[in-house]
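Complex record, two chains
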Amino acid sequence: MSLTKVSLIDIVKKQYVYKLKAYSQVFISLIFIQLLAVFFSLNGVGGGGISSGSIQINVSYFSADFVVAFTMLWGFITAIVITTKTYRIDDFIFVTNRASSNLSNMVFLLIASVIGGITAMLSTNLIKVIVYYFKSDFALKSTTVMDMPMEFLIGIFSTILYVFLFCALGYLVGTLVQISKVFAVLLPAAFLGGLIFDGLSGKTGVIAKVLGFYFTESSLALFIVKIIMTAGLLFIGAFALSNRREVRT
Amino acid sequence: MSVIECQGLTKAYGGVKALNNFSCNIEENKITGLIGRNGAGKTTLLKIIAGFMKETSGDLKVFSESPFNNLTVSANVVFIHDQMDLPTALNLKELLEVAASFYQNWDRELANRLFDYFSLSPLQHYEGLSKGMKSTFNMILGLAARVPLTLFDEPTSGMDAAVRQDFYRALLKDYLAHPRTIIISSHHLNEIEDLLEDILLMKDGKELLHMPIADLKEWAIGLQGKTAIVDEWTQNKELIFTKNIGPDQSYVVVRNNFSETEWQSARIAGIDLTPVSSSDLCVYLTSKTKGGIDDVFNKG
């Protein structure tokens, strides 16, 4: 029987299609997590009130910030989940090597980020509808997509990039934990420890600076460069770490 | 042409060597039985051949390439084992579709016919199957993938006798129609020996024997008779197994290098010469002591 030759790109494509089906549970968890976030958003993210005489004005702000934050968390967790053994060995049933497995995971996470980012941004509409029907004493003042289409698109785009950044981070964290369970304790301890240390010292610490670096960038171009470079480095780290990993069932 | 060539292959888990200086050559288009006790290193060997694990030292070539992290080897090898864990989100029919997309020579018709024959339901999920049904489904994957090197590690575990027979027959028929290299590891040598061309016997991570199965049947001989006479006859022979049966009677298995005349005179001396079945011989060869489990109870 003659040998068949396959190309890496071809296998990555097939694995990606396979993963979209095989990992469909992650999209169900996306729906639940976004609905939960929508529910939390219904109290408004901020507001205030003034009253003078018999007139009282209450202002509440509603936004999809919660949904976006939850989606980032979802991206992070999803990326960790797909590095676990159960998912990793799914690849090895069929044709694969570690490079194709990692690359198809990356493509999968990218598509998951796109879906997560778009649905997160569109959830504003759901919030508006719910507020309109169930909190009827409100006068709703809202912008529509058509008022500022560019802002809306940039919003979607940057949400996607943020979710993807968290996916990349989760992928590296998951890979580290798969290499040694020590990291499952070490990484959260370092993160929380850093937060507490920053809090005690009262200065802007490392974690705050890192968050500031990514979340306060005002230039869109620079923001894109930052995110893509970081995500790229995180993925390269994960690829390098997992390239010699054995599969033990 | 050799499909698998390995020289001095060693694989250590911690301090324990699962494979210890293992060497073998597997020829193209042969069905080889990989036989050995539990823990002899069969699964480790197959996993290294399939590229799941990397050897600690030594040299291994599959299709003249190193199998670890190798896409070509992966595309041409299918490794079916009893701990396969297929994705839970897909039903059986979808799993077959996925397999079809990965393997270029996938035989859709064979897969479907086997699927129907073993009355698997398309909408069932893999984790809901019984152990025997899982093995049956794995077997369909292994056969229909139709790759140049097919590895079956304990393919029949959990299958009932009827399904096992069906599997052996299916394997043989598909092999005759599309010859390819197949390695089967199994505990049921007596069931698969008619299927095999070669046998590769492993013990403690090393190869013990690698020969055509037909030769194995002639390889050793059993002598039964009065202990004194049997001992005399087996003095300068390579003892493989000894057992006392009743007072003053013993059964000894030795390498069969008797000449025709020796054979005759042994008969006259009152020794029963019997062929040793392949599966018994493999048990004797791979046991740690010459007397088997009896030694544990014979405190002298």
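Note: Chain A touches chain B at residues 1-6, 8, 11, 14, 17-18, 21-25, 86, 89-90, 92-100, 243-244, 246-249 (CB under 8 Å).
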